[in-house]
Every structure is written in C-alpha cells, then in structure tokens.
User: Fold this.
Amino acid sequence: MTTTETDIVELDRIAVHESLRVVELAEGADWERDTPCAGWTLRRLVAHMAAQHHGFAAAARGAGRNAAYWRLPEDMSEPGRMYRAAATAALTAFAEPGVTEREFVLPELGAGFPGRTALGFHFIDYVVHAWDVAAALGVRVELPDHVLAAAAAVARRVPADPAGRGPGFAFAPALAVPHGADPLEEALRLLGREPEKWPLRR
Assistant:
C-alpha cells in the first residue's frame, strides 16, 4: 500500500475497532435503548452498521450494485456476534492491496466513487456510529487525537445542503459548532448530532 492508502485504511480500521469495542459493551436490555439516530434502538442501529459493513465490503470487490449485500441482517438475536462478523468482513476487504484505487459503487449515494473517497465515507460513518453506540450506553468513545482530527476534517467536507440532510439521509442537518469545540464535538455537530443531550452514565 502507498502511504496515502495506508493512512485512510488505518484511520478506518481504528474507527471500526472502536465501534466493535463499544458494541460489545451492550447486553440484555441495552439493545432496546434509544440512540442519537432518531427512532432507532441500539439493536436497529447495529443492524444498520452491520449492513453497511457488508455493503462496503462488496463494493470493495466490485459487487456494490448487488442490493443483497446492503440488506439489514434478518437474525439480530445476537447483535454483538453478528456485528463482529460484519466488521471483520469490511476490514478484510479494505486490507486488500490497491483497494483505494478501485471504484466503489454505493447505491445509497447513487454513484461510483474512487476507493479513497469511499473509505473516507466509511471512516466518518464509523467514527460517528461508534459515538452513537457509546452515547446510547452512556460511555465515552475512545479514539486517538489524530483520528478525531481526521474525522473533523472529513466532516467539514460533507455537503451541508439541507436537501441532502435529515430523515432518509445519512446525517441530520448541520448544527452550529461552538468556539473552542474539540474535534469530536465539531465532527458530531457538523453531522447533526447533539452530544450535550447524551451524558455519560458509566
């Protein structure tokens, strides 16, 4: 892999591993908790996260047009086990040589994208979704400073057009970022999250 390729693949790997860590903290009634994704329980959020992993893994191998790879899992009786398998599938696909040079077809976005761009989408999704899971459980997300700085940089580039934000889209409308916000808060607020509404409980 080139240095550039390694950077985005490694950033994504760190974010996905953090999402795994927080998902595996959930047990019992936790799966029915509300999440920052309006109307989604933690079980539903993790099903979405797993489907996206499988879809992106397929896209990395040229099969992104196949809708079957993007479907929500039917069996959510063991969400943690199912999620680990999905995350492993994505990370294995992304570790293949030359992945950032491939075209990823992402049906939800209606187009094909260079691999590096597509991995940037996946990276910011899993920084935010790791936080979503942590917020639902009342725990802190733990990501290195350089990963959070990269996430904030990606979040600044996500189009803020209201026509592409809100119900049915990946992110809610952007919120104002207060002066002095740290990179995680900046990324979350730019992508429509309100961290102040999800205090730590554990």
